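DOMAIN: structural biology
WANTED: fold as tokens
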Amino acid sequence: MMVRSLLRILAATIASALFLFTAAAMVMRQPSFARLPYDGPRADAVVLRRHVEFLTAAHLTDSDPAPYIAEAFRAAGANVREQTFEARGHTYRNVIAGFGRSGPLLIVGAHYDAFGLRQPLPGADDNSSGTAALLELARLLGERPPATRVELVAFANEEPPFFGSEQMGSAVHAESVARARTPVAAMICLEMIGYYSPRQPWHSWVMSLVYPHRGDFIGVAGGWDDRTLARRVKQAINGAGGIAVSFTGPHEMLDASDQRNYWARGWKAVMITDTAYLRNPNYHTAGDTSATLDYARMGRVVEGVFSAVRLRPSARDRAPRRRR
């Protein structure tokens, strides 16, 4: 009798633990089986590679890629402007491509600088991949202009020694948008989107239980208030032929890129990433070269972002978050 009671208690405990773990996994991953059908122009893997090769060469020679970025934006038919600012005695600039004229502003951004405190590094995945995607996204938007106002922003100064300071290019841009009292629909940050591998390492057993073991997906990460935006972006990437999974968690776990400066203003934002150093062994090394990236998969990500950008923001997306 006592044994049966103990077994029932044990079974109930296990069932409760499984229920709580499943519920936590659902909150983290925010599963969605919907896909947004893709009917836009296709991204060009050859063009993406050409952009990455130019940007990595610029990093290695310590030359300024901003003129190249501005020219690519102009070729796409965007309204282009440069936002200059001073940091540590030098002049830096964000390069901004504008599309559309009305409605709340949707911002898509990627930093174009590369880590290299001791020596110049190529920075192919981090973050020439995101910058190249931004340039190819501009080309697609030039072919099919969005219904609402969109800014594509190539940021300076995401990497150390500027990271976490008001001298980050994204902090400067976010401040200017706030100062202009511009209504913001959302921000999408492209942060390392080019590296894919047969195995996806995780630093915790919990993550390994919840997320895939193959590194063939792209991650869409945001906080609880960003979950509607994250689902929309994930559905758009899936519909374009990519594979996307989402992660929902505290912003303090996810603030290692430019979206942090938009969260700080109370705006919804998500980061699209290949999971960076968790997957890519070349992170912040000389091995982060253009030859290591998968440009076909990068193209599917670009198309997914294009699809998400062209959707009119829902009322829920436009609702401002409480500033933290």
In short: Strands lie at 79-87, 90-99, 105-111, 150-155, 184-190, 218-222, 244-248, 269-273. The chain has one domain: 30-318. Residues 315-319 have pLDDT under 50 and may be disordered.
